Amino acid sequence: MTEGVFGRESGHEQVVFCQDRASGLKAIIGIYSTALGPALGGTRFYPYASEDDALADVLALSKGMAYKNALAGLDLGGGKAVIIGDPATAKSEALLRAYGRFVQSLAGRYITACDVGTYVADMDVVAKETRFVTGRSTDDGGAGDSSVLTAFGVFQGMRACADHRWGSPELAGRRVGVSGVGKVGHLLVGHLVEAGARVVISDVSAAAIERVRAAHPEVEVAANADELVRSRLDVFAPCALGGALNDETVPELRAEVVCGAANNQLAHPDIEKVLEERGILYAPDYLVNAGGVIQVSDELHGFDFARAQRKASAIYDTTKAVFALAEAEGVPPATAADRLAERRMAEVGRLRSILTPA
After folding, report:
1. Does residue 287 contact residue 322 with C-beta atoms inside 8 Å?
2. A single GO molecular function, which one (predicted)?
3. What is the predicted pLDDT for the residue at 308?
4. 182 appears as a binding residue in the annotation
5. What residue spans of 72-146 are helical by DSSP H?
6. Torsion sign over Cα 246, 249, 255, 256
7. Does 258 show up as a binding residue in the annotation?
8. Does the 3-61+77-136 domain belong in CATH 3.30.1380.10?
9. Which of 97, 241, 315, 334 could be bridged to 284 by S-S, CB 3.0 to 4.6 A?
10. Is 184 labelled as part of a ligand binding site?
11. CATH 3.40.50.720 spans which residues of the chain?
């Protein structure tokens, strides 16, 4: 059944299926490209309905990481891993350590980090079996929670969107809808409130909503994600799982700008054309949500938060550059972002064919 996915020419360098029966580990590691360096990307722990679904997700996510890392100016390739199962019931020290041994077996071709369903404490456990892991706790010499600079980077990308659309990066008075206020979304809300934006939120978790409301009582709450999409907004920020921009939601969307933290927001490539036809400015997700990978990659050099934050601040300028190229070449922003990333992978990757002394 998984043969069909590979039959579509995914372009990946390597896909590894990992299983440890004793701990219950079933995982897939996808390495899309190492043209710029070792493939860096997080580990998603999720109860996929089937192995095919898990494989499709890891292939899409690892390719996205290659483009994200290239566009962020990092000398790192793109990879991702998924662990199949419910993290609330299946996660254990034995399972995480077994996973770490599989990561170690790749000898540095893949470097892992946190993602949906995995946390800093989990990476500390994985690190007991492999040195190819980032996103560890500060006590363990790591960068801590990568959500911090992910949210900061999305905020910088949103400021660039505002400048492109309205002639000023200021978000004061702008009505911003944040769909999903989990690890990244609730931090993004904090930046927006501080900037003077009027924020509306939605989430399937009542606890997540209450956490935001406790910190920011002025924030409005939509009944659900569909209501938020139909609200009059200046900016819509998808910050939950992928596929938020699809054939059902985009025709209902009333925002002028889409800029959020979720990965793989476009349900299919043609959706961006619909956004453009409707006059909605779309900031490619892997462009603006790169703050987290910038944060954990800095860990590879001895983590310095101020240095990592300065690098994440550049997301503002990169977003502006993507919009400028899109206008110059008459293409949607996602196409322009892809072209910039592909050029860097091709140009810098080519240099690796030049032999240098060890």
Report:
1. yes
2. nucleotide binding
3. 96
4. yes
5. 87-90, 93-105, 120-126
6. positive
7. no
8. no
9. 334
10. yes
11. 147-290+317-342
In this prediction, residue 141 carries a pLDDT of 86
Active site residue ranges: 80
Please, which residues have CB within 8 angstroms of residue 75's CB and are 6 or more apart in sequence? 36, 37, 348
Which of 43, 37, 34, 40 has the alpha carbon at shortest distance from 14?
34
How many whole angstroms separate alpha carbon 18 and alpha carbon 20? Answer: 7
**pLDDT given at position 243:** 85
CATH of 147-290+317-342, one of 3.40.50.1100, 3.40.50.720, 3.40.30.10, 3.90.930.12: 3.40.50.720
Q: Please, where in the chain does CATH 3.40.50.10860 lie?
A: 3-61+77-136
Q: What is the pTM of this model?
A: 0.87
Ranges of residues in the chain with a pLDDT under 70 are 1-9, 355, 358
What is the Cα–Cα distance from 334 to 331, expressed in whole angstroms? 8
**pLDDT (tens digit per residue) in 131-188:** 999 999 999 889 988 899 999 999 999 999 999 999 999 999 999 999 999 989 999 9
